Amino acid sequence: MRKAGYISLHIKMTANTGSKSLRLRIAGQTMKCSTKGESVSLQEEVLPFPTAGGARTHVAGQTQDLHRNLTWKDAFWVTSGVPAGVLFTIGGVSATIGQPAWIIWILAILVGFAQCFTYAEISGLYPHKSGGASVYGALGWVRYSKFVAPVSVWCNWIAWSPMLALGTSLAAGYMLSNLFPADAAINTWQVTLLDLGFISKDLTLRINSTFVLAVIFLLITFKLQHSGASAAARTQRILGIASLTPLVVIALVPLFTGDMPSTNFLPLLPLMHDATGASVMGSWNSAGISTAMGAMFLACWSTFGFETAVCYTREFKNPQQDTFKAIVSSGLLCLFMFIAVPIAFQGELGLSGMLAPAIVDGSGVGAAMARFVGGGVVVFNAIVVMLVLSILLIVMTSMMGSSRTLYQASVDGWLPKYLSHVNEHGAPTRAMWTDLVFNLFLLLMSNYMAVLSISNVCYMIFVFLNLQSGWIHRLDRADWPRPYKCANWLLALGVLCGYLDLVFVGAGANFQGENTLRNGLIATFLIVPVFIYRHYWQDKGQFPASMRKDMELPHARAGVLPYLALLLAVAVIWISAKLTVIG
């Protein structure tokens, strides 16, 4: 059987050819190369030629690599777990803002959808890379700062990886609360290991039944991923159909029955608290606007997640077309789900129901949604089981995306070398093990909302850096082929959304707990010593050869603009934090 080969062309023209260009057509791809006497690296130089049977040779010095066996449909099903993110924060958003929660969800997913077009463009620039939008965005920043670029990659991973612990713990909570009474010993026993109150109030490390069952779910998910993305995608397709069904049913049933009184949605006044701590209707003063920022901060954590569709560019059979199709199709799915499900949920329960403790902490969301459908005990249990599957689906999505971010960050020289390994199935197993161990630690934590909020500070910083990389790439790599190029107004809208996201961080983070903003910023910069170890200790101050090729630029046209963008970002967060009023 003939094996796939790789083409690596490097052209150096020294003759006086003026400003003409040379076009090469290789394997159906037309590439334009400068002929101004500069060394030119082809953007597609590591793409394999497809062959019958899918066999492949490997880059010198490597025994395995990620396999090109996915289509955009596979990525769509992999990311179909993202809508389940609404189960994590639907109660928290309502507890923050009150009656206008359904408007917050609409605004949050619209912002997320507007951002996806920038992601689609920059991911097309690097069809030979895995790891998602943060990797492509980091390559825009690296020419201006070695330290800003790894922050982007790190913040993406630190935001996605905790989804493994959050998801499996929520699924375990659903199972335990439906199988056993709330006061049963299995639901109440707990062994406290360590008090972490200095990080967040009442935060501890502990072992209980939720931890044990969540670990079992986590190990099952790990096993399903061990055979590579293609096999996992097939499992995701099955789980996707099973898990999206209850969310769709829950979203549509109240719409058809019409059992959603307008009083559950109006008046659109923010939730405040009086001197005794009781919830009351507020007004749109500075405290009300600040509250809306806190709700947007939380809702964006769920609604932005479909950007993980571009994590699989290196594994797409046709990355030039599949990348755009994957993220836009996933975005359209999320656009529907993140609007319909919160509206149905709030319309059914009303404000008082949304503020119930079991809804706010997420443990009772599954049971509440199952009751919407009716049909007796059998239907109730079937819906709960499918909701558990939907949560495990987003856990699989998170593990696939976050492990590939670790893998590519290691290949590119951001993180330690040991993460570059993949097994015979093309699965980045050492990155997956790192995810697993990290989340076993997170599962010990007693307050998962604190974990979510801290990781979201990191996530929004990644989103900002990535959206700004769109215009940096436009300036610095204007002549690079782009399978998809978003309209200028969409690119500008993405830039604006990036700064708006930072407003949500500065003004809204501390609504989810005292010192959340501080803790999130500390978590953001934990990458610095890790990067110093990799870059200056392991690599002696040099990036890997493959990374240097991606960094090659005849002219860095962005000039001082990236630095000005960073200064403005710091000012936006600082001013937003100073002006916020927590009522």
List the helices and strands and how they pair.
Elements: E1 10-12, E2 21-26, E3 29-34, E4 39-41, H1 72-78, H2 86-97, H3 101-124, H4 133-141, H5 148-160, H6 163-179, H7 185-188, E5 190-195, E6 204-208, H8 209-225, H9 229-257, E7 271-273, E8 279-281, H10 286-303, H11 319-354, H12 357-360, H13 365-373, H14 376-411, H15 429-443, H16 448-476, H17 488-508, H18 516-524, H19 527-538, H20 545-551, H21 561-579
Antiparallel strand pairs: 1-4, 2-3, 5-6, 7-8
Helix pairs in contact: 1-9, 1-11, 2-10, 2-11, 3-10, 3-11, 3-16, 3-17, 4-5, 4-16, 5-14, 5-16, 6-8, 6-14, 6-15, 8-14, 8-15, 9-11, 9-13, 9-14, 10-16, 10-17, 13-14, 14-15, 16-17, 16-18, 17-21
Subcellular location: Cell membrane
GO molecular function: transmembrane transporter activity
Transmembrane segments: 75-96, 102-120, 153-176, 203-222, 238-257, 289-312, 324-345, 377-400, 440-465, 486-508, 520-537, 558-577
Notes on the protein architecture:
- This protein is mainly α and about 575 residues long.
- The chain contains 21 helices and 8 strands.
- It has helices at about 70-80, 85-95, 100-125, 135-140, 150-160, 165-180, 185-190, 210-225, 230-255, 285-305, 320-355, 355-360, 365-375, 375-410, 430-445, 450-475, 490-510, 515-525, 525-540, 545-550, 560-580; strands at about 10, 20-25, 30-35, 40, 190-195, 205-210, 270-275, 280.
- The radius of gyration is 24 Å and the shape is globular.
- Mean pLDDT is about 80; it is low at about 1-65.
- It is found in: Cell membrane.
